[in-house]
């Protein structure tokens, strides 16, 4: 990476601990986010450690990703450091499940100095009293240069999702089962089995569905290469705080077809033409057929993504963290 330009207002170096409960060997969106944020914070001149929990070590700032799962660290830090800055970053599980009824998640917001969300619609899920603490930091992704060529043997649809219920990961496979023989659509799915119930399902689907290929878990760079060579990304999740893979698709100029959830609408916009109702495989199939048909729909998706590319630039996300550090300084 080249020299980082001077960012006005950045305060003196801090010792920062960034807590994420996701193991380093598991390439989830949250882990990717945590490692990227740590990189930015180091580029801004800070000493940063990424941990699964805060163990009492001395630091100037704690950033905790996931309010409920990181709550033990949040609570210990605040008990020992009552005036120190504490940032709580919210995941989709926090926003759309835990804040409805989990006292630890709610208490985490009360203890936080600032709350980070990944798209503006997340504010609506946060208790009104905590909303003044909220800052939106859109996730970024590096643009590939030069971009790899698109797959030529088929109309490739990419799914980057670990196999667990909230991702509804086999919905794209179901959607392409009954496509006409003339269709060139094939689904390539990368992701690990996090819910054992899916192990047999994904193997059976792959045996019976010639349009579906499960690749298992991939290293992040291999997943991005798969995405960049695809014609479409499908995000079939039932909820997301703001999926990192959507930003990666925008940066790679790969159109997105997404379930109609706040986490995607907050990034792509309310009028984006590439949504389908959550869990509706027939509606998803119709969107895929339209994209393949050549009637101009695919180009509309491309043009929309092109307009969004400034939103997901690395410099924008880095500056957002610089601004937040100044606030906390």
Rounded to the nearest angstrom, the distance between the terminal CA atoms is 27 Å
Say how many strands there are. Answer: 12
| CATH domain class of the largest domain | Alpha Beta
Gyration radius (Cα, Å) is 20 Å
Biggest sheet: strand arrangement = 2-1-3-4-5-6
Q: Which CATH architecture of the largest domain would you pick?
A: 3-Layer(aba) Sandwich
Tell the overall outline.
globular
Count the domains: 2
The proportion of residues forming helix, as a percent range, comes to: 25-40%
CATH level-3 fold name of the largest domain: Rossmann fold
The largest sheet is: 6 strands, parallel
**Mean pLDDT over the full residue set:** 93
Query: Approximately what portion of the residues adopt beta-strand conformation?
Result: 15-25%
Low-confidence stretches are 1-9
Classification by helices and strands: alpha/beta
CATH homologous superfamily title of the largest domain: Glycogen Phosphorylase B
SSE string: EHEEHEHHEEEHEHEHEHEHEHHH
Please count the helical segments: 12
Question: Any overview of this molecule?
Answer:
This protein is of the alpha/beta class and 329 residues long. It has 2 domains: 15-140 and 313-328, Glycogen Phosphorylase B (Rossmann fold), CATH 3.40.50.2000; 155-311, Rossmann fold, CATH 3.40.50.2000. It contains 12 helices and 12 strands. The protein has a 6-stranded parallel β-sheet, with helices on both faces. It has a 6-stranded parallel β-sheet with strand order 9-8-7-10-11-12, with helices on both faces. Helix 2 runs parallel beside helix 4 (103-111) and helix 3 (92-101) packs across helix 4.
